[in-house]
Write a structure and sequence with these properties.
Blueprint: H1 2-17, E1 21-24, H2 33-40, E2 45-48, H3 49-63, E3 78-80, H4 84-95, E4 103-105
Parallel strand pairs: 1-2, 3-4
C-alpha cells in the first residue's frame, strides 16, 4: 500500500496532464512497472529503457556476428557508484540469487 501511495503522489501530475507514454529511465523504475502501470492505466505506454537498450545491443551484436553462443553460460558483473553492500542486498532480493561476489564499487568522480 505504501508503494502505491508514493507512486500516486509522484505520478498524479503526469496523469492529470494526460501523458500517453512514460519512459522508465531510472534503473529502479522497471521494478515498479506494475505499480506504475496500474496507477496510470492501460492508455499509457510504459517504455522500459533497460529492456529496450538490451534489445538494441542484442540486435547490433547480432548484425556484427558478435553474439556469444547460447549454449555458453555467461557471467554477471555489476559495477556500482554507491555502496556495493546496499546494492548486493537489494539485487539479491530482486534477482533471487546472491550477487555479492559479482558487485564492485567504482569511483566515477574521475570521469
Amino acid at each position: 500500500m505504501v508503494i502505491e501511495t508514493v507512486a500516486a503522489e509522484y505520478l498524479a501530475p503526469l496523469k492529470e496532464a494526460g501523458v500517453d507514454t512514460l519512459v522508465l529511465g531510472c534503473t529502479h523504475y522497471p521494478l515498479l512497472e506494475r505499480v506504475i502501470a496500474a496507477y496510470m492505466g492501460p492508455s499509457v505506454t510504459l517504455v522500459n529503457v533497460g529492456a529496450e537498450s538490451a534489445r538494441a545491443v542484442g540486435a547490433m551484436l547480432g548484425e556484427q556476428k558478435a553474439l556469444a553462443a547460447r549454449e555458453r553460460e555467461g557471467q554477471c558483473r555489476c559495477y556500482v557508484s554507491d555502496q556495493a553492500e546496499d546494492f548486493s542486498r537489494l539485487a539479491s532480493i530482486f534477482l533471487g540469487w546472491d550477487v555479492e561476489q559479482a558487485v564492485e564499487q567504482v569511483d566515477i568522480s574521475q570521469y
